Write the structure tokens for this entry.
Amino acid sequence: MKKILFLFSLLAFSLPAHAGLFTSVEDRAQEVRAQVEGNNNYHAELARQFATIAVTEKGEHDKAAAQEFIKMAEDHAAQAGGAQ
Amino acid sequence: MKRITILLASLSLAACASHTNIDIDELAEARAAVAASKAAGAERCAPKLQAEAVAALYWAAHEYSEHGIHPDENAELAAEAISKANEARNQGSKNCAPAPKPAPKVVEVIELDGINFELNSADLTATSATRLDKAVATLNRRSEINVEVAAHTDSSGSDKYNQALSERRAASVMDYLVSHGIKADRVNSKGYGESQPIADNTTSEGRAQNRRVELRIMK
């Protein structure tokens, strides 16, 4: 029983950790901006825009929206081709 | 238990649904404007404006999903998406050259067997002309294809000489095709010298195979 509880706890914490839920939205937004610094293509611009919206939404206490927008920012940052 | 599972699954799927699926007139107009600017090449030609438009659209869609909260701000966001998208579309169509076309690729090679030239010359022999008439017939039959006449030499002689000779021979074949009714914009010529052997250049048989002309069908 203890083993099952232990495994369940690991799983319960690993999923949100993998999704970056334990890192603040502001830190992730900063990471996105660093990742596309100097890059002005469409995906880089969109990544910056979504990161800004995420931080704003978090400031307005809409954490779910903030998480969703920062995830979109990270997705576009990944497609942007890095900093230039 | 089964009902709870279904309910949880439904909620999860609803959470995954895109914000932009909400059916509101302003959003529909914003979506159309963003799609139009994208179609006009704005992602490439006006990336900042297009990104601002897309971000405003998503943000507006999210805000509209919070029914009844800040209706004026929601409309403003949708209006911003439309305005930025229109600006992006205009800038895209004015300032942007069309995307470069991909270089044509060789999709098929037709070996022109029996095409020979006078020694160290680009003049076609009489028998070669007969063979080329078959190529003319093929090109007339397959009117949708464009071709490159590719001429090759063996490795005898200097690279420079072989390159120039192959270019003259390719041009000679192209001239023949055009003079027999093939439109010039369907054909171009290129000499490859001795750079693309298909057989051993140390034997006379190999060298004979390497001295060749091909029709390369390009797409």
About this structure: Chain A touches chain B through 16 residues (CB under 8 Å). Chain A has a mean pLDDT of 86.
